Every structure is written in structure tokens, then in C-alpha cells.
Amino acid sequence: MTGLVVVSAAVEGIVDEAVVRKLIVQAGGRPGTVYGKSGKPHLRRQIQGYNNAARHSPWIVLVDLDRDAECAPPLCGQWVPDPAQHLCFRVAVREIEAWLMADAETLASFLSVARSRLAADPERLLEPKTEMVNLARHSRRREIREDMVPRERSGRQVGLAYAARLMEYVETRWRPEVAAQGAESLRRAIACLRQLIQEPA
Amino acid sequence: MGMDFKFSRLVLKNWKNFAYADVAIQNRIFLVGPNASGKSNFLDVFRFLRDLASSGGGLGESIGRRGGVTAIRCLAARRDPDVEIHVELMDSQGKSRWEYEIAFKQDKQHRPLLRKERILCNGEEILDRPNQQDSDDPEQLTQTYLEQGSVNQKFRDLAAFFSSIRYLHIVPQLIREPDRSVGRSNDPFGGDFLEQIAKSPDRKREARLRRIKEALRVAVPQLHEIELWRDARGTPHLRGKYQHWRPQGAWQTEEQFSDGTLRLMGLLWAAMEGGGPLLLEEPELSLHPEIVRVLPLMFARVQRLTERQIFISTHSPDLLRDEGIGLDEVLLFVPEVEGTSVTLAESHRDVRDLLHGGISLADIVVPKTRPENVQQLTLFGAA
User: What letter does residue B181 receive in the DSSP assignment?
Assistant: First the structure.
């Protein structure tokens, strides 16, 4: 473990945490403390602190674009007008689920759905999370449907073990380098992390 | 093995804090409210049903254990002195719907007296008391039919289900000092936890301990092995091997485990047991918030294996942060003048609006159930 560059991170939720940890490891680094995980508004309030810490050590901050802007650059400007040297501020277009869907082959197999159901260009989806739930709705496996699709009366967007299933997928099946070919924002995030790890503080 | 049931609805009248309550019950429910709002008293209804149907229980004993009818009856009760419980259940296939109703008060000698006992299956009445036998011999109204093996053939599965309800509120000190609760079985505070592990069949125990070890690696990474070990007197202990400065690691027994490790072990063990509804009192205690926030996901996944209903009381915003928790799974307890009101989060328009506006469930329901005048505490100790 020694000798690897430690990268701290801040993310919106626990699925994002699993994604970011995997990306750091794949880029040749070692995940440090992962902050946030209490939603986007929370992250937004803490961003100055993270940016401050990134003056002296490598950091990645990952947020969903959602519908906050048409594309990533304006969001970066709003969040960190003055990024520190070792800050890699990345925006997932439009939600982290799009990055997972970009590895269509393993996701289709994990969810037990026909591959043809997956969007060819997941970054163009306006609501990737809704799309992920809809994919799960078509799963041939009952446990996937029950875990990921909300019950009619639940009033929630996702099912009761949605996050657990996606974390399982990220840890066991997801291939970031394959997904990067279908998701430009992911490709950039990986490139940025590589650079961060190769030129440590 | 009898039929498996799940509770689907609970109606209460004059039970402890609740003058009246009527709530639908899902496979998993979270009870949220300030201290002393009645979360434990709500769970106690299910423990009461268990006591009714268990050997050594029954109506008189179950009420006596709770301090008599006057201690159970809601203080807000005035004209309507009966205490009433009405539960609806579905069998696990969802084919038949059962109802059990019981009402009681006390007679002039302060003895509990049954006022009503009814059982329905798919709307058809199987039992309706008081009946002819009760009017011939009023003494019979001191016992339920549920508790009497000789008369409950038609609903023995129901009685077995009630007696399979399990309450858990692990007190790590009691696991460490089991002598304090010697002879108790199903001790809710964990006093017989080690005994329970010891008496489970070897293969099952090993498989479960292995899974607990896997799960614990997340919370306690330095813990590498766990096993059951008996000392020279044959007393069972849990011991774990910690990776350490010593090259071989070091074995520690439950006496040295932290409160959090012991509580988590107890929770995981109970979650893996099959059986009737599991009532968990504040599972978040002494656990790291990051562990707490994944507890709902852990319960959801383990429920897939055990099919066990889980009722959880909590004060923890971290636990409620999980976005898979349904609004129909959250019960809000709000103390009011006429007793505590219990409502499903889904019945509050503003909860749904706030949630759809992007605010987390934790940030909505915790303030909603905040005790009145908390700020008074900041004056505590002021001259």
C-alpha cells in the first residue's frame, strides 16, 4: 500500500463513493477519506473547504450535473471559480447512473435485462436515475425488481436496496475503462485522476 | 412448522400513550419520535401479543408484568375504559388475511377482565367472545383462547406466530456479564446471546459467524477471525483475532470487544435468524454514523433471505438518510395533549413536497418530531 498516492474525495452519496474509490484505484492511487455523502446541497456548502485542502494534497470532488446547467463548464465555474492546484473537480453528465450504463454489457447482465434496452448514449439522458429504475423494472430477476424499483406507495424514486445493488455492481462488475468510451464526462474524470496521481503534491 | 404471517395493520385504543392509533404496517417500519413519545410502548404491543401466546404468559401474566390494567390504559382515556388491540395479518403467500382483536379492562378487584376476543380469517369469524361459555362461567374471561392449547386448534398457527415475535435491545454489558441474566431465554438485552450462539447447530453457527465476520470487516477491519470458544468451565465465549503489533495477532474475548462491535454482532446475528417479527430498539447506539446509514440497506437485503418483518425505533438522522426508505415505512410519533399521534410519513402532504423538492427524509422528519422546548436544556445549570 505504501508509495501509492492517496487521493481524498468528496461525493454526493454512497454509490458515488463506490465509483470514486474504484476510479482512484484504477488510476493507480489509493482512496483516502471520502467526504460528503449527504447530498448535493451539503457538498456545495463544503466545497471551499475541500478546495482549500486541495492546495496541498490531491482531491477529487464529484457532483452530478443534474439539470443545473446545459453542460459541465458553467457548473464548475459556479462551484469553484478558483480551483486549487491539486483539485480535480468533475461533473457526471447528468447523473452517476449514466456512467454505469455506459458499460452496457455488464450492466445488462447484472440487471438481467436485454442489452437493447440500454440507451446508446447515456449522457444524453435527462434523468439517468429514473432510467436505471425503469431498466430494473424490466429485470427477469424478481429480487432485482424488488430491490431497485420503489413500491407503489413508497413515495420514493428508488427501491429499498437500490443503492446496495448499484454498489454491488460497481464493486464486482463495472469496467470504468469500457464505460469511458461511452461517457465523455467519465473519460475526462479518469484522465484528470491519472494526471493528479502522476504529478503528486 | 406452522404458517408464516406478517402484520399488515395495527389499531390501538387506550394503549399507553395512544388514545387511538390506526396504521398500516409494511415489511419494514421505522419508528421516529422524541423521547417518551411512545415508540417503545408501540413496540410493546407486539411484545404483549407474544406474551399472551407464549408459555408462561397469558392474559393475567402479560398484564401483570406491565403493572396492571391501570398502568397500561392511556392517561387520556376518560369515558371509554377498555384497552383495545386489533391487528391484521397476511400469511406469507398473501392468500389469507387474519384479524385478531382483544379488549380488556379490570374488574372491581383490579383483575384483568376480557371484554372482547375475536378472530377472523378472510373476514369470516372464527372466534367471537364473550360467548355462551363465558356467560355460563364468567371466570373464563380471565383468559384468552389464544393462550389455551385445548381451544385454539383453529388458530394455533396464529398463536405460534405471536410467540415467535422477538424484541432486541442489546446491552453490551449484559453480553459481557451473562451471569446477570442467567436462566433467561430470549433475553432482549442480549444476556443469553452467547448461549444462543452456542446452542445453534455447528454448521449453521459457523456459516453465520463467517458472514458476520465478512460484514464486520467493514466496520472493524482489524478483526480477522471470530469463533465460539468454551472456557475450562464450559462457558461459551465469542472470541476474535485482532491484527496487531504481535505477528500472530491476538485473541480477545467478548469482554474486550467494544460496545459497538458487540452490538453490531448481536444485530447481525438476529437479522440472520428467521422467525417472527424482529423488534429493534435504536440499533444505531454506539455505532459509527457511516455504519448506521447503511443499516437500512443491510436489513433490506437480509430480509430477502429471512423474510422476517423488522420494526426499528430510531433517533438517527443517519439511518433515515437512506433514499430507499419508503414514506409508508416511516411512522411519526408526535406527543399531543390527548396522547401521542402516530401517522405514516406518507400521510403528510408537506413531507412529500419537501422530499420532492430535494430535501432528505432525515432532514424532514427529525425536526418534525423534535421535542418541544429543547432550548430549555441549554439553560440547565444556570443559576
Answer: G
Tell me the shortest Cα–Cα distance from A156 to chain B, in angstroms.
6
Please give the residue of chain A at the shortest CA–CA distance from B291.
A14
B288 touches chain A (CB under 8 A): no
A62-97: string of b/e by CB count within 10 Å (b at 16+)? bbbbbeeeeebeebbeebbeebbebbbbbbbbbbbb
Contact B145, B58 (CB under 8 A): no
Give me the interface pTM, i.e. the ipTM. 0.85
Q: Tell me how far apart the alpha carbons of residues A38 and B321 are, in angstroms, rounded to a whole number.
A: 8
Residue among B37, B100, B70 nearest B371 (CA)? B37
CB A94 within 8 A of CB A64: yes
- How confident is the model at residue B347, as a pLDDT? 92
pLDDT tens-digit map of A72-93: 888 888 899 999 999 999 999 9
Lowest mean pLDDT: which of A156-160, A187-191, B352-356?
B352-356
- B109-129 burial, b if ≥16 CB within 10 A, otherwise e? eeebbbbebebbbeeeebbeb
Whole-model pTM over 0.90: no
pLDDT digits (tens, 9 = 90+) for B165-179: 998 887 777 777 766
pLDDT band at B360 (very low <50, low <70, confident <90, very high): confident
Between CA B83 and CA B85 the distance in angstroms is 7
E strand or H helix that includes residue B224: strand B223-230
Contact B53, B145 (CB under 8 A): no
CA distance B84 to chain A (A): 28
Strands (E), A20-122: 30-36, 59-64, 87-92
Choose among B310, B220, B304: nearest CA to B259.
Answer: B220
B166-168 and B278-281 strand pairing:
parallel
Three-state helix/strand/coil letters over A56-81: CCCEEEEEECCCCCCCHHHHHHHHCC
B188 touching A (Cβ < 8 Å): no
Quick one: which of B315, B302, B309 has its CA closest to B329? Answer: B309
Q: What is the pLDDT of residues A91-133, one digit of tens each?
A: 999 999 999 999 999 999 999 999 999 999 999 999 999 999 9
Identify the pLDDT of residue B219: 67
Q: Residue B381: helix, strand or coil by DSSP? A: coil
Using alpha carbons, select from B69, B19, B23, B77 the residue that is nearest to residue B48: B69
Cβ neighbors of B1 (< 8 A, separation 6 or more) are none
Which chain A residue has the Cα nearest residue B361? A156
**Model confidence pLDDT, tens digit, residues A11-46:** 999 999 999 999 999 999 999 999 999 889 889 999
